[in-house]
Each structure stands twice: as C-alpha cells, then as structure tokens.
Amino acid sequence: MSMPVRLLKSCWLAVFLVLCSMVSAGQALTLDEALAKTPPSQLFEGAESYGAPEGEPAIVPVLKGGETLGYAYLNSDFTPSTGYSGKPIRIVVGIDRKGVIRGIHMVEHHEPIVLIGIPEPKVLAALNGLIGADLGRVAAGEAKPPQAEIVSGATVTVLVMGDSIVRSAVRLIRSGRLDGIAAGPAPAETRRELDPAVTGTEDWQTLLGDGSVRSLVMSVGEVSKAFADAGQPLAAQHAETGNPEDAFIDLYLAPVSVPAIGRSLLGDAAYDRLAAKLQPGQAAVLVAGDGAYSFKGSGYVRGGIFDRIELMQDGQGLRFKDRDHTRIPVLAAAGAPRLKEIALFVVPQDFTFDVAQPFELQLLVQRATRGRDKATLPFDLAYQIPERYLLPAAPPAAPATPVADTPAAQPQVGQPTAEDDGPALWKTMWQMNRANIAILGTALALLTAIFFFQDVLTKYPRTFLWVRRGYLAFTLLWLGWLVHAQLSVVNVLTFVNALLSGFSWEYFLSAPLVFILWSAVAAGLLFWGRGPFCGWLCPFGALQELSNTIARKLRVPQIDLPWGLHERLWPIKYMIFLGLFGLSLYSLADAERWAEVEPFKTAIVLNFMREWGFVLFALACLLPGLFIERFYCRYLCPLGAALAIPGRMRMFEWLKRWPECGSPCQRCANDCPVKAIHPEGQINVNECIYCMNCQVLYHDDTRCPHMITQKARREKIARSAQPKPAAATGKTGREQPPAFRAQRAATADNPPDLKGA
After folding, report:
1. Rounded to 5 degrees, what are φ and ψ at 66?
2. In whole angstroms, what is the distance from residue 238 CA to residue 370 CA?
3. Quick check: 288 and 343 in contact, CB under 8 A?
4. Where in this protein does the record put region Disordered (predicted)?
C-alpha cells in the first residue's frame, strides 16, 4: 500500500472517530424528550397534557382540563439508576400531590437481559406493582419501601428499576416540592453520636450478647412455612435441603465503622488500614452468613449488584455493588465461628446513613416455583447500636450536630489495601466458569491444530468430513444451546460504543466465554480472516450447515444461483451492518433492537422459546438454507460483514491453488459450499468460511483434474519401468490416455458428496 493511500485512510479514520465522539456526546435523554415519548394518560388516568417544567431537577405538572393531577419526573434526575449495562435506566414516573405513584413509563434502557429475550412487558408488569404505593408514608418513616415483584432471569434489572423509582420519589417528596406534603426529612429520634472513648475489644459471645452483633437464624422448615403462609405452596415444596431442621441461614450484621466493634471483628491491623481510607462520614457494615442459603447469591457476579440484601434506614434503601464489597476470610474475634461468607460493605457517600440510628438489613429469599419462575419473601434483620457505644443524648432543645461535621465523633473506616481485597468481579466469574473455560480452551486448541495441520487432514476426505461434522455438532449443542456463547453484531456495536464512551476491560472480562471467543476470533482474523468463526465457531452457522446436510440426505433439491445474481446479493449484509453501526452512534438501544435481524438470540440463546413472531423470523432465515447452503451467512449476516472488513488484514494465505484453478478448471468453484471462489479461480476471503472443501479437492486424485493428471503420469512411469510383451496386454487397438480414463471414471462413479458438513 502506497504512503499517500495510507495517509488518506488515517485521515478518514481520524475524522470518523471525531464524528463518532460528537454523536455519542449528545445521547443523554432529557425530561422533555422523555415526555415526548410518554402520553399523559399513561401516568394519570384521563390526563390530557403537560404543564411547564418547575424547579431543578425539573418536574412537570400533569393536567386535565387545566387541573393539576400530579407531577411527572425522570427517575435518573433524582437518583442513580445504573443496571447491568452500566448505563442509566430512564423511567418517567407520575406521582400525585400526596406522594402516591400513579403511573410508570419506561423510556430508555440498555439492559441485555431484557434485550435478549426476557419480555419487556413482563418487566413492566412487575414495576407496575409499585403503582398505588404511598411513598409519602415511606418518606415520613411510617412504612418500609415497597418492593417490585421479582422477574425470574432479570432479578437485578427489576430491583434496580424498582429501587430507582422508590428512592427518586422519596427524595422528591422530602424536598417539599409536592404541594400536598410538607418538606423535610422523616421524623427521627434525637440524633446520637458515637463515644470515641469506647475502643476496647470483646470476644464473639460478648458481642452477640450485648447486641453489638445482631443475628437472624432460620431453619429450612421455618422458611418453607413462611412461603406456605404467604400463599406460595410450590416454593414451600422446593426446599434447599431435605431435612427441615437444617440451617437455612445464620445471618450476622455489625457496623464495623464503630471502633470497638471494628477492632473486635477485623483485628487492629485491618481496622487501622480501613480507618485511613474513606472520607469523613462514611460508614461500613459487616455481613456474614452460614447455612444452605447464600446472602451474596450470584447476581453480583453477573451484574455487579448484591440482589439478595438491602440496607434500609429512614425510608431509603441501598443495594450494595461489587465495588462496595470486600471479602473477609475470617473473623478476628475470639471464639468466632468459621462462617462460609463474610463480607465488608462500605456505604457509598451518596447514601445518607448514620450508624447511631436504627437501621435494617433486608434479606430477600428466592425459591423456584415452576420452570424458571421464582417466588420471593423478605426477612428483616433489625439493628440498634447498644447504648454503651453512644454519648449521652443531648437536651431536646440543643441542635444536633451532623455526624459529617464532626470527624472526631465519627471515626473513619476505609477499604482494605490491595493485598487484603477479595478477587475482582471478573476473576470471580472466571473461577465460576473454570470447567467451561477448560472445555472451550480445549476446543480452540483442537481447531488450531486442524488449521495448522490442514494439509495432512484434508488428504483423508472421509476422516476430515466427520471431524468437521463433529466439531460443528459441538459448536451447536455445547457452545450454542448449552452455554449460549453465540457472538452477535451487538457485541461489535457495544465494543465500539465502549471505546467512545469510556472503555473498561473488566466489563468485557466479566463474560469469560464470550471474551475468550472474541480473543480467538481476533487472532483468527490475522491468520485466516473471518473463516474460523463463521465456518467453525458460530452456532447459528453450524445449525444452517447441519440442517442443509440433513436436507441433502433427504434428497431436497439444491438451488445453484447464477454467479451474477450471487455476486450482487453479497453487499446486502454489508448494508445491514453499516445501517446498524450508524444507528448505534445515534442510539445504541435502537441499534440493539434492530439487531434482531440476527435470529441468533431466538434460535440459539433462547432455544426457540420466544414469541411466535421471532420464532417465525428465525425459521424463515433457516428455511432457504435447506435449498441454498448457508443462505443467511452468504447474504444477510451483519456479524459476518463486520468480521470480513478487518479480515482483509490477514497475514497469511494458507489455502492452496493449482495453476489450472479457474482456467480452465472450475471444479472447486462449483463445489464451494458458499460460492466464495470466483470463476477466474481466486478465493474471495471476504466470503470464505474456511470449510476447507477446496483443500480436500486439492489433494483428491479422483476428483481434481490436476491430481488426476499427476496420478496418471505416475502410473505411466511405473508401467514403463516394467515393460510387457504386446501379446500379454490382450489389446488390439490404441489405449486411451490414463488421465482421460481417470476423469471419465471419476465422473461415472459419481462419488459421494464430501463437502464440509
């Protein structure tokens, strides 16, 4: 490539990145834009219009005939609402003057668990359970925050959405901007302060006995009875163990930001390191558990949020995230038991929390009911710090001094140093998937060996045929339908969006199988182009090829499109990809929805268990493949187009050709399963799936004319070395040339179809 051409491409790349950053900078959704997508009647029955925005953050009156029914606001304007995707979930909430939720409308989210198949109406139905909730009582401290109904498979997403609605409404109510409720925080007891002189350590039994550590102890039978009493008989039958007397959970809670409690449970050295880390006013709590039920669960591993516990105080709830969490191996207190799970949670600064005031830890217990459905019950562990840790109460008339303004009265607590920290989220994910990673690593090593030793393997057509069919079956059954590691064009769009808006390796490392696959695909692009993925590692591609193989066995007629038409259908997939890519720069959420042009989610990730419209579309993509092998791969796949573009940079050309290929021989071109070989003989690497069918032909001395001729010459030389009398041959006429006889025999025998599976 000449220098001017390289310079021109570099300039275009720079301009492209600048434009991308400009487009991505303006994607934040405003309240006006959200209301434009939200009919007033969806928030309040009979509402007709919106009034003028008021205050900051803005709230908008919802009107009916000039009368104000209530107000509309955007949840993300009042409280963080980040879910799985790392991006805000934006919900328009309708709330009346008394603080009662009257309507909810989802306007924007990027949650993959919803985008890949959990029906959005099911999620919205769960959130609609908050409609009618009186959050005025919650803001006043008279009631606990309501919980959205859990949706199986989207627990974290629903919890984040429900929490953001409740917390934003409570903050709005306490601001006094609703004319039906007075401003101010919830009524509370006289503010108390910690006594800095109390620093002595105690043993475990003393801490339990005086209430420094509070516990919640439940048996399996007690939890089963609670589900039965709550009208969930199926959940009551799905006990964690067969013995009702077994320990369900022994849950312990303690504020380790209190010096004496922290030193007792963590040890002096660990506490001193903790106390030097956080800003004034921050607190930390220790949560420990043992038994059949885990208070951590697995939601924090998948989505970074601990979905089974919630810290609650003064009408506000906090669900900890993985960045707030530190794993503690053992408790330092003398006589402390060896517990299965011990976690230190640092309370974020944006959550108002005072350890001197009563608070609760709510445990959300989940049990399976039918299929993937789950039932949930909350259990509360209340905590009130013992009097011995507090200074005497101030006279009622004396103003209470905020804890944050007196650093000496609130000792600081911080996170441990790196050597004491537990494994990062992505490391935990890799540990949990060790077996799957080993299987995938072995499969990739085998594929690498197939590619490196292809010259040897393709000399044995039938052996290679069954190796390929077996590998495709593994790709479809295990990689696709079992572990759902189907790559998608959405991954490409998300990666580009991450580069433009704040890239983080940990986000991609948290899905180990997908990360390993993408790494393998990236390496394969440098060596062989898009072929290793499209031809061997794509479950949907394997489904197409195996279904076409079955169709051939059933003698389904195959359609051979004319080369001119075939060549003009190639660009369709590139147009689809460019359209999705351009749309993703404007709205990633819209691009993810339009990416349903890929039937991968329906056919592979969800095993066709989806709404009938998606299933029909997936079947419509598969049906032509019974007559035209890999029809979708050839003409429609946007992921294949995305991989073909960088695949042009491959470093090696390992597919061998004879001088006769294309001129005059057309055998490989006619037999190519995806017609990636031009009539002139050259292989189009943009379309090649590296099935190696042409390499099998390359070595086949019964089908390749070049090899047939070479074989005939060898036979002729061998015969000439052993002369025989003319009479011994038994022939009276001129013998036909060996190459001609071999070609005629190959045509007449009509050998079995040995194209790649």
Report:
1. 85, -10
2. 10
3. yes
4. 397-420, 715-757
Contact between residue 174 and residue 320 where contact means Cβ atoms under 8 Å apart: no
pTM over 0.90: no
| pLDDT, averaged in runs of 10, over the chain (757 residues) | 41 40 49 88 90 88 89 85 65 90 84 54 77 85 72 59 83 82 53 81 90 90 89 87 90 92 89 81 90 80 74 81 83 90 88 86 84 78 87 59 41 37 58 86 94 91 93 94 87 77 63 88 88 92 94 92 90 93 79 86 82 89 93 93 84 81 84 88 87 88 85 83 59 51 52 48
Cα gap 361→380, rounded to integer Å: 6
Q: How far apart are CA 721 and CA 675, in angstroms?
A: 43
Q: Which alpha helices (H) appear in 204-298, and where do they start and end?
A: 204-209, 220-229, 233-237, 259-266, 268-275
Q: Say if CB 476 and CB 542 are below 8 A apart.
A: yes
Within 10 angstroms of residue 404's Cβ, the number of other Cβ atoms is: 15
What are the residues whose beta carbons fall under 8 Å from the beta carbon of 161, sequence distance 6 or more? 81, 83, 89, 91, 106, 109, 123, 127, 148
Q: Contact at 8 Å (CB) between 239 and 224? A: yes
CA distance 71 to 54: 10
Cα–Cα distance between 382 and 251 in angstroms, integer? 11
CA atoms within 13 A on the CB side of 479: 31
